[in-house]
Write a structure and sequence with these properties.
Layout (H helix, E strand, L loop, with lengths): L6 E5 L5 E6 L4 E4 L4 E4 L3 E7 L9 H13 L5 E7 L5 E6 L5 E6 L6 E4 L4 E5 L3 E6 L3 H6 L5 E6 L3 E6 L3 E6 L4 E4 L4 E4 L4 E6 L3 H6 L5 E6 L2 E6 L3 H13 L7 H20 L6
Antiparallel strand pairs: 1-2, 2-7, 3-6, 3-10, 4-7, 5-6, 8-13, 9-12, 9-16, 10-13, 11-12, 14-19, 15-18, 16-19, 17-18
Length: 273
């Protein structure tokens, strides 16, 4: 099944949203709750499954929905159909600070592996499935568990990352060691393994944990600078210090950070593309 072609523009800096322009008769899909605004003339509906249109009956849709729920997404998909006779708009925003990256699945071989919950929206026809980790150590220590998301199709999918985002191309045989929480997406040609840091002292006092991800080319990977777990740990640590002498300063800084995030989310609606 061919995917609906869409035009889009991404607005904002580190607090972004994506505006999709739908031609008459075209559709887009997203996670429930991701919609920011929508023009009149666009019909919004929810359906069980991934909204790809590949389901042949209710049982197929339900099975796809179950697979989505295991990969960190909702059982339902929100579908946006332009039933007007002119182009219409719909915009999607992520629930946390970060960046949105558009990835043309056709340019990466029609398949992409992403962390759980990273899929935000895309053209109708994007299929969301499960990517099971074949190595036990990757499942236990890889940060994402045994299950990641597998996006398939030949159109555009929008993936959300926390913090700043970087795209890196690994040549055949080239390897990179990455914090397990910083991995957002990778081509299926990239080999993903887990390695021990090597030194007990570094593991205990280095602050990086016991394991890191070993990524080997060929293929493209996408990394995020601020995993939500790391941000939450920092804010929680600042809040805990409130019970200690001088700890009020820590909680004040935590509240300031939260206030800045909220203000930037509000103002991001006026950001440029």
């Amino acid at each position: 099944m061919d995917m609906d072609p869409i035009d889009y523009s991404i607005h904002g800096d580190d607090l972004q949203y994506v505006e999709v322009r739908l031609e008459p008769g075209r559709r887009a899909v997203s996670e429930p709750g991701a919609m920011m605004y929508v023009d009149d003339g666009v019909t919004v509906s929810s359906e069980v499954g991934d909204g790809s249109g590949r389901e042949t009956n209710i049982f197929s849709r339900f099975w796809r929905g179950i697979r989505r729920s295991f990969s960190g997404e909702s059982l339902f998909t929100a579908t946006y159909a332009n039933d007007a006779g002119v182009p219409r708009r719909v915009a999607f925003a992520a629930a946390s600070p970060g960046q949105i990256v558009p990835i043309d699945l056709g340019s990466v071989g029609g398949e992409l592996i992403v962390q759980r919950g990273a899929f935000l929206a895309g053209a109708r026809g994007v299929e969301i499935g499960l990517a099971l980790q074949k190595r036990i150590r990757v499942g236990f220590f890889g940060g994402e568990g045994f299950i990641m998301q597998r996006l398939t199709g030949n159109g555009v999918a929008f993936v959300h990352a926390s913090g700043a985002l970087t795209e890196m191309r690994l040549a055949p045989g080239e390897s990179l060691r990455v914090d397990t929480g910083c991995l957002v997406a990778l081509q299926n040609t990239v080999n993903y393994d887990i390695r021990y840091v090597g030194k007990l002292k570094s593991a205990l006092f280095g602050g990086e944990g016991l394991f890191f991800a070993q990524l080997s080319g060929p293929g493209t990977i996408w990394l995020q600078s601020m995993p939500l777990k790391r941000l939450g740990k920092t804010l929680f640590g600042a809040a805990v210090t409130a019970g200690r002498p001088g700890g009020a300063i820590g909680i004040v800084w935590a509240l300031v950070v939260v206030a800045i995030i909220v203000v930037r989310i509000i103002l991001s609606g006026d950001g440029g593309s």
